[in-house]
Amino acid sequence: MRPINLLFAVAALMFIAAPVANAEEAFLNYKSYCMQCHGMHGKGDGVNVPAMNVRPRDHSDNKYMMTRTNTEIFKAIKFGGPAVNKSVKMPAWADTFTDEEITQMVGHIRTLCCEREIIRGVNFK
């Protein structure tokens, strides 16, 4: 009986740890690929900003970010700024990230503007 209990305990821990691992992966992807323009905390103040003629989006601006759907953010990441009528300076990341990784990135961006309640249950495709 003891091995079964241990098996359930391990399965439960794996289920709980998965969202944390996904959040960490999304943060690391944001840090590696987005931070240069959007900044560490998503304020649009990355190191590349002085060389840009269009300031990157401030992902921490709750008022603005509430006007964007998760699908629009997903499309901007996957297909680039022009896909959502935004700057051509925003590159397309479809060849870099899977749809699941982009979905995780959308979740991370939502944490920057404190809109966690709309992260889950949305079809991002």
Looking at this protein, list some descriptive labels.
mainly alpha; Cytochrome Bc1 Complex, Chain D, domain 2; 5 helices
Structure, described:
The chain is an all-alpha fold and 125 residues long. The protein has one domain: Cytochrome c-like domain (Cytochrome Bc1 Complex, Chain D, domain 2), CATH 1.10.760.10. Helix content is 51%, strand content 0%. It is built from 5 helices and no strands. The chain has helices at 2-33, 35-38, 62-65, 70-79, 99-112. The longest helix is centred in the N-terminal third of the chain and has 32 residues, at 2-33. The radius of gyration is 17 Å and the shape is globular.
Which helices and strands appear, and what pairs or packs with what?
Layout: H1 2-33, H2 35-38, H3 62-65, H4 70-79, H5 99-112
Helix pairs in contact: 1-5, 4-5
